[in-house]
Specification:
alpha/beta; Rossmann fold; Ribosomal Protein S5, domain 2; 3 domains; nine-stranded mixed β-sheet; 11 helices
């Protein structure tokens, strides 16, 4: 007698399982996230059966010769930068981003670049028909590329197609949430289906040596939808950032087994698709107004790349009992801490003012070294005194008001000098070599010295 399938209740937010339904997930405290799913067996292509007997695995030692993972260029230098110097055969890359941000456009360009160089590219679209993908290819001028195209969501059909001919160099799945395995009694996009599809495709990619590119939907919080285990299964996780109302896009690595996990690539959306931006600093500073108070240029580092961006602040008298604090592109908790330090250590109070802070161009900054630039912008806005147009700022502010050293200070100064800036406000501690640079360095030991030049300070 065949064994009956076992039903479980799986949380669609965190992937936790339960034997009975409940209104609240015990693991992530999410409400109404448990969905009944049937475990009907291993996914197709996994090579696993319930009665399979294990085999003895040969154990290795830590000592031995190792070789760097082979790579090949994707044809797009900004993507190669983010992935650590090129894509690795047999690796899996997960790309997430808001709808319409440019994920499908980028992947179609990558597939066309590889096909034109003689590689084999296959594009499976689960959200668009073949005709829609062809229209995009014609608009981008890629219709002549020999890319294998299919509109398919059945996992078994996809694996059968991939195994019918010689292994593909590149396989694109757009998107992983649309696939379904017929061995699982669950709807497409559920935790079981997404996990099974990802596991089977990753297994194929490693056996065939193909590069697997998966597109993932994102939630309203900006995270890739589905269980976090998918991000652990893949080798690289990339996020597309940017405002759809603006022309540029930022591709950010948040996980990379073959390179740095904090690198970014910058693109500009034009009529012909995504165009690489060789010098992002010029893009973010192109429309700068250097005569208005409340604007400071931050010399930051994204991965290994120096990046200059303008931080804008607006401090206005508030008629509310609790003044507003609004932040775009920066950590709101960091702003609250900085305002408290300015009040306690420098005597500059923002208690009766609304404070708005914005990173120009929609770039998201997580680096602590942005503290000094944000403080300079806030002090400039509340005092009405414009900062020098040719000045850059960087440095981390501690709770005592001291300015701490930042990493790669010389690299930041070289980027500022290259773009024509003449002054740099930087921490007093830390090594910074400005030899040969036309920069005037102003060392800042405490936030009080910066506040004294722009606002009343005790």
């Amino acid at each position: 007698m065949a064994k009956l399938s076992k039903s479980l209740y799986v949380c669609q937010a965190c992937g936790a399982t339960a034997t009975r339904w409940a209104g609240k997930c015990a693991a992530c405290d999410g409400w109404n996230t448990l969905v009944e799913e049937t475990d009907a067996g291993p996914p197709p292509g996994s090579g696993v059966t319930r009665q399979s007997k294990g085999r003895i695995v040969k154990l290795e030692t830590l000592k031995g010769s190792t070789q760097e993972a082979p790579r090949f260029s994707s044809g797009i230098s900004e993507l190669d930068r983010v992935t650590g110097g090129g894509v690795v055969p047999g690796s899996t890359i997960l790309i997430g981003g808001e709808p319409g941000i440019g994920k499908s456009t980028l992947l179609l360009q990558v597939a066309a670049h590889l096909a034109r160089r003689g590689g084999k590219s296959i594009y499976f679209s689960g959200e668009e028909a073949v005709a829609q993908v062809r229209l995009r290819a014609e608009r981008l001028g890629l219709a002549d590329a020999q890319v294998g195209l299919a509109s398919e969501t059945n996992l078994s059909n996809i694996l059968a197609t991939l195994g019918d001919d010689r292994p593909a160099d590149l396989v694109i799945i757009d998107s992983i949430q649309t696939l379904w395995a017929d061995t699982l009694d669950a709807a497409p996009g559920t935790v079981s289906q997404v996990r099974a599809a990802a596991q089977a495709l990753i297994r194929y990619a490693k056996m065939a040596g193909s590069v697997l590119l998966l597109v993932g939907h994102v939630t309203k919080d900006g995270q890739i939808a589905g269980p976090k285990v998918i991000e652990h299964m893949v080798d690289t996780v990339l996020y597309f950032e940017g405002d759809r109302g603006l022309s540029y896009r930022i591709l950010r690595a948040v996980k990379n087994r073959f390179g740095p996990s904090d690198e970014i690539g910058v693109f500009e959306m034009v009529t012909g698709g995504l165009q690489e931006v060789a010098n992002p600093s010029e893009l973010f500073l192109g429309d700068r107004d250097g005569v208005s108070p409340g604007a400071a240029v931050f010399a930051g580092i994204e991965g290994t790349r120096p990046l200059l961006v303008e931080i804008q602040a607006l401090v206005a008298p508030s008629g509310l009992g609790t003044p507003r604090r609004a932040v775009v592109g920066w950590d709101s908790n960091r702003l609250a801490m900085l305002l408290a330090v300015l009040d306690a250590r420098c005597g500059v109070s923002f208690a009766g003012h609304d404070v708005y802070l914005n990173v120009a161009g929609g770039l998201k900054i997580t680096e602590p070294a942005a503290d000094l630039a944000a403080a300079a912008a806030l002090l400039s806005s509340i005092s009405g005194v414009a900062l020098p147009r040719d000045a850059v700022y960087f440095g981390e502010v501690s709770l005592s008001g001291a300015v701490r050293a930042a990493a790669m200070m010389t690299t930041r100064l070289k980027e500022a000098s290259k773009l024509g800036f003449g002054q740099a406000f930087l921490p007093e501690s830390g090594d910074a070599d400005a030899t040969g640079l036309k920069l005037s360095l102003s060392r800042v030991a405490h936030l009080k010295s910066l506040a004294g030049a722009t606002a009343p300070c005790d």
